[in-house]
Design a protein that fits this description.
Layout lengths: L1 H16 L35 H35 L1 E4 L14 E8 L7 H6 L10 E9 L5 E4 L5 E4 L2 E2 L6 E2 L3 E4 H21 L5 E5 L1 H10 L3 E5 L3 E3 L4 E3 L2 E5 L1 H9 L8 H19 L2 H4 L2 H14 E4 L4 H15 L4 E4 L2 E5 L2 E4 L1 H12 L11
Parallel strand pairs: 1-14, 2-9, 4-15
Antiparallel strand pairs: 2-3, 3-4, 5-8, 6-7, 9-14, 10-13, 11-12, 16-17
Helix pairs in contact: 5-6, 5-9, 6-7, 7-10
Length: 380
């Protein structure tokens, strides 16, 4: 019995040395706490091989979520880009403009506000004080230069005295003789955007890279889609021709009021020159508000806004959403003080039309073509 117990003791001892528990002295089953063997180390360390799996699973889930979000963002951005591009009215072919100046540094946009009543009802014409005149004319014309430095916005008074050169008819395709001295907005009235571009290039020597035009209805709809534009007026004014009736101070202009604001000229001593300054101020403010995070990140605002603008926005055939966005952001920068706004330098008048100060115009164009800081100033 003792021999068997001895064998059993040896057996337990062997088992203990081999990793098994020896009999407990207190008669209880199971290994004594002081007799428990040390845990064998796991391959590669003291941590169980599967202890990192929850972390790896969480990491994989996070990566999948991140990839999904990025794909959705790309689809939204890409879809929006192609939606805008497919809805742009690319009706102006600058490739048909003859005898064009050489291209310079940076990009030059010719921005036009026309008095087109396309899509407007008789009641809208009455409410917006546009009248029912046939054809189209320009109420505002601006050159926006965008380059490596700060942008420059230059208003071209519609009563500017210019020479309308020979041109290719936009519809006939035939060459037409020069029309001589006339108002700048007459070029648009005679043959539309292509002749206007040709006339601006001929009289300035500056190549126009892109063209953008919006009519009365589109302008008012854009402002209303934004919920109005916040403006601060230094002084109040009235004009029965445009329907303007403003008091001084901060106010939010709706589409009807905004259109009256940018069209008014009879209320100012400087007439068209004062109007161009108001147009610059308003368009820069509108661009600043449209490009704000509160607008861009709100799909219930940004998509109706884009839809309202695309309905009546006419551009050149090479315009795309990227260039359009670049144009609006540049106008936003002008409003934020990161750019310059001015009228085309004026030296006097000729037959009631405004004469450009040609030495200053030449210097201005040279600075723009070289994408250099604009040092030219306008006294009016």
């Amino acid at each position: 019995m003792n021999q068997r117990r001895g064998v059993q003791n040896v057996d337990f001892q062997d088992r203990f040395e081999g990793g098994y528990a020896a009999p407990r002295p207190d008669g209880m089953r199971g290994p004594h706490p002081q007799q428990r063997p040390m845990a064998a180390p796991y391959p590669g360390g003291d941590v169980p091989p599967d202890s990192g799996r929850p972390y790896r699973r969480r990491g994989r889930r996070f990566r999948r979520l991140l990839i999904t979000i990025l794909v959705l963002l790309l689809l939204i951005v890409g879809g929006t880009y192609f939606w805008i591009d497919s809805n742009l009215r690319k009706e102006v072919d600058l490739g048909k403009v003859v005898d064009r100046p050489a291209a310079g540094e940076g990009t030059n946009y010719l921005i036009v506000g026309s008095d087109s009543r396309e899509g407007m009802s008789k009641q809208q014409e009455k409410d917006l004080h546009t009248g029912a005149a046939e054809g189209k004319r320009t109420d505002s014309m601006m050159i926006l230069h965008v380059g490596q430095g700060d942008p420059t916005l230059i208003s071209l008074p519609r009563d500017s005295n210019v020479n309308i050169p020979k041109f290719r008819g936009s519809e006939s395709g035939q060459m037409r003789p020069a029309m001589g001295a006339n108002k700048l907005n007459a070029a648009y009235a005679f043959d539309g955007p292509q002749l206007l571009t040709r006339t601006v290039e001929y009289n300035t020597g500056l190549r126009i890279d892109h063209y953008a035009e919006i009519g009365f209805a589109g302008f008012a709809n854009v402002v209303d889609a934004m919920g109005g534009v916040d403006m601060k007026l230094d002084k109040g004014f009235q004009d029965k021709w445009s329907g303007a009736d403003f008091k001084a101070g901060e106010q939010t202009l709706d589409g009807k009021q905004a259109l009256a604001y940018v069209r008014t000229r009879h209320a100012f001593t400087g007439s068209d020159l004062d109007r161009t300054k108001n147009q610059q101020k308003f368009l820069s403010t509108l661009s600043n508000q449209a490009a704000s995070p509160g607008t861009l990140l709100n799909p219930f605002t940004v998509y109706p806004l884009m839809s309202a603008g695309l309905d009546t926005l006419v551009v050149d055939k090479d315009m795309n959403p990227y260039e359009l966005g670049r144009m609006f952001l540049a106008m936003k920068n002008v409003n934020s003080g990161q750019g310059k706004s001015m009228n085309m330098p004026i030296s006097g008048s000729v037959g009631g039309n405004l004469a450009w100060d040609m030495p200053k115009v030449k210097q201005l164009v040279n600075e723009l073509r070289g994408d250099a800081p604009v040092t030219v100033t306008s006294d009016r």
